[in-house]
Amino acid sequence: MSEHAESMRTIWYETEGDKVCIIDQTQLPHALQIITLETLADACRAITDMQVRGAPLIGITAAFGVYLSLKQNPQCLLSACQQLAATRPTAINLQWALTQIQQELQALDTADQIGSALSLARQLLADDAGACSAIGDNGLQILKALLKQKQQSQPSEQSGENACLNILTHCNAGWLATGGWGTALAPIYKAHQAGLPVHVWVDETRPRNQGASLTAWELARSGVPHTLITDNAGGHLMQHGMVDVCIVGSDRTTRQGDVCNKIGTYLKALAAFDNDVPFYVALPASTIDFAVNDGVREIPIETRSADEVNYVSGLADDGTVKRVRISPPATGVSNYGFDVTPARLVSGLITELGVYPANVEGVAKIAEAMAADQG
């Protein structure tokens, strides 16, 4: 099956029935299950349990959660935003979206807030899809340049498969994680649609296996050539010249260009730096936290349930999905959800506004571009 990334959504509003629908990402890749969010509690649970995940999508879901809450109780704006903000601590888009919604709605009469909340949530969804498309366009120029460089550096007799651009990514930063297109995957989708020969190395991304379960599923649906690898294989591939560029997403980026992303990203950045492999981060500008400077010291890192490490779920030979334990019962578990990649390891920040250096000056230019765009 081949599907275009620009047409895919993981959350949407259906006018008929006044329903907010999501793809339950905990069921992928073995089942494509659509569920309806009806209450604030549903939205909070969807975020906490990672039925929806990815920084941009979490913010969008929270915006719809405000709408669902106001439908139940028009007086609960503040408490609804507080409950939604507490669901996950690391991704800044959650607080960013809720701040946007709260500021807009507080300026309105209570009677007007419900309809406006829905309009704002739908607008956030559309805006994020547009931003991600622009990220894809800007990243595409990088991929074109890298492919041209690779082709020119090879002897004329080396062509075909050797001329393919090999891209390594970590976790899932595609349309499943955003309003559309994705962040790290957007340039890849754009390149594939433009006919560029690309191949993606997909990290499995333990412990929740978002690469194996989600990124591989996405790429397969769009017909993008890809290979699933263990999380520990990336460094080996880079040492042997089998990775041309790394592109990852970000859940929070600081004003000095540090990047917080799924646990394991930092190790890939170190391997890329040691092997002269470009390491780019793709993110909407809304993912930048201008109040934070040092990501390692200041960004709160989410710790998650030990069950995510102790157990794995998969499709058994009899066709049923089963959950099995892989560790001894007496063994303790540490399960940090994210790590921080220092700016010095990042080749550039790919945003909807352009590509910028990962440093104080580069992020300041993003802020200037944001102000100009909003003005």
Number of individual domains = 2
> Roughly how many Å apart are the termini?
42 Å
Oligomer: single chain
CATH architectural group of the largest domain: 3-Layer(aba) Sandwich
Binned strand content: 15-25%
Describe the strand arrangement of the main beta sheet, using strand numbers.
6-5-4-7-10-15-16
CATH topology of the largest domain: Rossmann fold
Which class do the helix and strand fractions yield?
alpha/beta
The CATH class name of the largest domain reads Alpha Beta
Overall pLDDT confidence: 93
The geometry reads as globular
- The low-confidence runs, each spanning 5 or more residues with pLDDT under 50, are none
Radius of gyration using CA atoms only = 20 Å
Main β sheet profile: 7 strands, mixed
The helix/strand series, from N terminus to C terminus, equals: EEEHHHHHEHEHEHEEEHEEHHEEEEEH
Helices, by number, come to 12
What is the helical fraction, as a range of percent? 40-55%
Record field, number of beta strands? 16
Descriptive report:
Belongs to the EIF-2B alpha/beta/delta subunits family. MtnA subfamily. Keywords: Amino-acid biosynthesis, Isomerase, Methionine biosynthesis. It comes from Pseudohongiella nitratireducens. This protein is of the alpha/beta class and 375 residues long. Helix 1 runs antiparallel to helix 2 (55-72) and helix 3 (77-85) runs antiparallel to helix 4. The chain has helices at residues 40-48, 55-72, 77-85, 92-106, 110-153, 186-193, 210-222, 234-239, 265-274, 295-298, 307-310, 360-374; strands at 11-14, 19-23, 34-37, 165-169, 198-203, 226-229, 245-248, 252-254, 259-262, 279-282, 288-289, 311-315, 321-325, 338-341, 348-351, 354-356. The protein starts with 10 loop residues before the first strand and ends with a helix. It folds into two domains: 5-125, Four Helix Bundle (Hemerythrin (Met), subunit A) (Up-down Bundle), CATH 1.20.120; 132-374, 3-Layer(aba) Sandwich (Rossmann fold). It has a seven-stranded mixed sheet, sandwiched between helices.
